[in-house]
Amino acid sequence: MSSSSLNAGRRERELAEATDRRVVDVLVVGLGVTGAGVALDAASRGLSVVAVDAHDLAFGTSRWSSKLVHGGLRYLARLEVGIAHQSAVERGILMTSTAPHLVRPLPMLLPLTAEVSPLTGAINQAGFYAGDVLRASAHTPRRVLPRPRRLSRVETMRMARGIKRDGLRGGLLSWDGQLEDDARLVTAIARTAAANSARILTRCRVTELHGDGAMIRDELSGNTASIKARVVINAAGVWAGDLVSGIALRPSRGTHLVLRSQTLGNPSVALTAPVPGEPNRYVFALPQPDGLVYVGLTDEPAGNDIPDVPEPTEAEITFLLTTISSVLQRRLHRDDVVGSYAGLRPLRADDGKTADLSRAHAVLHSSDGVITVVGGKLTTYRKMAEDAVDAAVRSRGLHAGPCRTKRLPLVGASDAAALEGRVPERLIRRYGAEAALLASDPELLKPVSDTISVTMAELIWGVQHEGALDVSDLLDRRTRIGLIAADRETAVPFAQRALDLAPTS
């Protein structure tokens, strides 16, 4: 087992250590992308860290994203230049330094159909060039994100064969970053934190939170205990206000549909469809490596009752199907949808529609000393974590080194390209340099079924090294088999077998 390996045995040992009355420097609550990022930032500065979550890594909002690493173009259109530049910088860091194995360039096509007026097309083209200026200002190389350009009608149809051809004038091609999988990013961050001596404890629910620690309940055993800390950072996302009073949030629901790629003509580019009557709002059809397409997303008020797993509404599903169908030759129907998911954005409370609320993050201090980080977005998790740890160090006078995470590669990031041709490409995409370890036993490299690309090697690896404790961890977060109910049912026996086979001591 490597120093980054998370498993049941390590969890048991480190939970006992964390609750043995020692005082750690930092207690982090929440193990989504922000909480995992805080744990990594603090641990890599030399601070002692315990990070807990009531459920699992990436259990909440972090696994329900569009799987995009945005360059900030939308924020630039709203004149939020600071947020736009920050997004472009953080995208560049992920793509060139910390996680190049998990983020790749994604071509994005806006078809110039009859619904897109020449003026709207010109405005969008100018916006794409402005986005390229952002790329340059963030020092992201052209080889990583190519130049945007206008396409002819023939080029547009060649790139997206399922596109509607009536009234088509051509297309606008731009580029952004695409994650292999958002939950895999969180797992990689958490494991890198563990390699820097952070204690990563899932299934530990905080029942009381104070400025100097917390009471927790081990959800596996039911036992309760206390964790003592010099500073506490609340990174619980949409649940942050349940732990600390005075945190005002207005969560919004973002829904996505899951479709088979052939339903849309097997597009090689992301398709963009304008939302009628809503400037600067679009629905995207985002092709995934394993033969799926995610169509999203919505931006609807979620109310104050926050479920563990949000559910899309039929109205949202209809909206997404109708909007993306406006650029397709074949109109999509409800039975084309093989899965769906929804996530809740932890937006700071303000007036107006949730779609118009700022995506800026904030670091807040409660009266008893708890530091809460809220708002923001997946792309800027690293900067959010840096700001939260900076605040913690200042508020408690902790002895810590400078932030290192701009240049700290996540597990698997080093020299993954050297494996090309020797290891299955799918494993390199998802595990980077660690793919060679997964490929050591050829018998485990067969897909678990004709419709599921995941292998037994990946399921066993999830138990041995990625902290998966049960079937749901494996199928819903370490892999994304669970996005399609029928595939999930097929894969349950394989996940159970991996749990039975994998040693975790």
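Second entry:
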Amino acid sequence: MHPILFQLGPIRVYSFGVMVMLGFLAAAWWATRSGARRGISPETVMDAALFIFVPAMVFARLLFVALNYRDYHSLAEIAMVWQGGMSFHGGLLGGVLGGMYFCRLRKISAWDLADVVAPGIAIGYAIGRIGCFLNGCCYGSECHLPWAMRFPDLNYPGMLTPPSHPAMLYSSIAGLLMFGILTAVDKRRKYAGQTFLTFLVLYCVYRFLIEYVRAGVTAVVAVDGLTQAQIASVVIALVALAVAFRRSRKTGAQTSAGNRAKP
């Protein structure tokens, strides 16, 4: 593993922080390209990216710290986000709140903006998980597959894990697959918000499954063998599906009414 990418004198540049930033830049680049289809200028997308990114990072860190509060003993440790320790669900909440606030300020459609950024989130996630791999965190349970790897053991400092699932690489691959699916969905979207809601469902399905590999190792088991992330994923997926069903029916009804109104 390479948690420290390089060092300039006393300054250490951490792999996790670099990959998260690269993921953000890739997501913003994609969003500026796709925003034109929704009538959103590149300048507006970049402004929105800042409103989304900052609260996303803050919420991602705060939720992770809240769920692992025993591991933190000072405000300085909490602030060291570049060393890893982020909750995607927390980041999602922060990003949504930041994006909604931006849309109110600029008076643009929150659903359109969400659809513009959704594929970018997936590609950014794929890149960010490479940072987890370089950092040596978020690995999975012991396995004997040909691609099993050993990581610095979080429970026994100075020791390595037995050959284990490189779960962070699975996550990166899942992010790339989601990106491909979302770009296809976005080209054929039938209602505003479809791409973003599809992202939420895809992410929750993937996250629910990957947690079986990480449960009890780098993911905390909460209730009846389910991890905290699995419970959150079920709730978010159900809400996303309900909203998608409602918006789809509303759009279908409006289309039918429009067709009947034609002479």
